Amino acid sequence: TAVFLLSFFQSPFWILSLPSEDIAKGLMKRTVCAKSIFELWGHGKSTDELYSSLKNYPLENMAPYLQSNLTYKIKVHAFNKTLTQEEKIQRIDSLEFLPFEGKVNLKKPDNIFWLLEDYGMDPNNIPEHPIDLYFGRWIANGQRDLIESYSVKKRHFIGNTSMDACLAFIMANHGRVKPNDVVFDPFIGTGGLLIASAHFGAYVFGTDIDYSTVHGLGKASRKNQKWRGPDENIRANLRQYGLEKHYLDAFVSDASRPIWRKGAQFDAIITDPPYGIREATRRTGSQKEMAKMTERGTENHISISSNYHLSDILFDLLKFAAEHLVIGGRLVYWLPIYKPEYTEEIIPRHPCLKLISNCEQTLSSHTSRYLITMEKVKEFEDEDHDVHILESQYLPYKSHNSFRDKYFSGVTKRIAKEEKDSQK
Ligand SMILES: C[S@@+](CC[C@H](N)C(=O)[O-])C[C@H]1O[C@@H](n2cnc3c(N)ncnc32)[C@H](O)[C@@H]1O
Predict the structure, then answer these.
(1) Nearest CA to ligand 1 atom 7
(2) Signal peptide span per the entry (predicted)?
């Protein structure tokens, strides 16, 4: 089946080649990036081109949907232009040559057909005629409604770094989370990432070094609210969405000192590690360090001391995933990038993990974060404990503070420029 869907790259339309309609429907049951998918019947750069392409579409492919006992309706959508009702009707009338045999039914048609017109991405430069036209049979809509229904704005328990609902769903999709999976987030925070996995039927749990976050205590992150309420916690979030039975638990624990026995296995590890950009990076200290820090020791019920260096966070995370994922299980996490230094080589690797994808989310002119997806392809063996050779890949992150300084230099320069521009 040739199909296309609405998505946002250089054009909001994308032509795909998929093996079957069922696969197209399966895709749309999961995606929060695409609006709709259609079976493409015709495509052209002008109306004439579209019509001749439609006339060439095999009749036997159209016939099952055009029979006399089936009702239909045609809808018109223009991207980057508003069409009047009159213009829409005119376009529908011009498609009269299609061999429809059934009756029109606007309320509950058996089949819906769409004429889609693309007027480009620039709202300040809308061409008179569309640059691309498509006609097709509607198959399914995507899950974009989830972005609204799971919005952080309406969520019971949130923190300063709660993951945006759309990104959390994208991460769960990259993690290929499916019903009855066990999904783990070693830096769980308010559990924002796990909600999406629970929505897809997984059992979720995590750890966080911060006692207050895990227990839903302390200062509230919402404006006009000083302290967190008695029922502001991860469990209450899952309850809010009817997903409480998918919540296993969250433990107060330091990700640099995993608490799992050898043999504990997860289907996916989905996480947003602390990079010291919006939150402090820290880990429990050594006994020596702890002795030095006695008065801070009780503050969080565990002694938190040394900075957890970025290179160590990444090193530990990959090693942990290599050891505790099932074969075929996925690690999905965000990697902060200082753009001028980015090359694919700086993405940390591990012999047990294959890099599946690295997708950029631009944050400023100098900084981005990459959504990294890796899949476990090899059993973790004793020699994998010793992955020193690969440490070279962690070099850009080795000097934690200098990375942060660079990262912030971009952000501060941008803010300074914005402030300057606004004063002009
Ligand atoms: C970016 S936030 C995660 C936010 C989370 N995705 C959410 O939606 O709320 C990173 C979390 O890592 C925690 N953290 C920092 N150092 C840690 C460590 N060594 N072990 C475990 N958690 C740690 C922080 O307390 C913070 O909650």
Answers:
(1) 162
(2) 1-17
**In angstroms, what is the span from residue 291 Cα to ligand 1's centroid?**
24
Chain length of the chain:
424
pLDDT tens digit string along 276-333? 655 556 676 655 554 444 433 344 444 444 577 788 889 899 999 999 999 999 999 9
The CATH number for 2-143, chosen from 3.30.70, 3.90.1720, 3.30.2130, 3.40.50, is 3.30.2130
Q: Specify the pairing of strand 182-185 against strand 203-208.
A: parallel
Read off the pLDDT of residues 404-413 as tens digits, 9 standing for 90 and up: 666 666 555 5
Q: Verify whether ligand 1 is closer than 6 Å to residue 276 (CB atom).
A: no
CATH level 2 (architecture), domain 147-410: 3-Layer(aba) Sandwich (3.40)
In tens, the pLDDT along 365-403 reads: 888 999 999 999 999 987 777 665 455 555 666 655 556
Residue whose CA lies nearest to ligand 1 atom number 19:
283
Atom of ligand 1 nearest to the CA of 271: 6
The verdict on the CB of residue 272 being under 6 Å from ligand 1 is yes
Ligand 1, atom 4: nearest CA belongs to which residue?
189
Sign of CA dihedral 40, 46, 48, 49: negative
Single-letter residue type at 232: E
Report the alpha-carbon distance of residue 273 to residue 347 in Å, rounded. 15
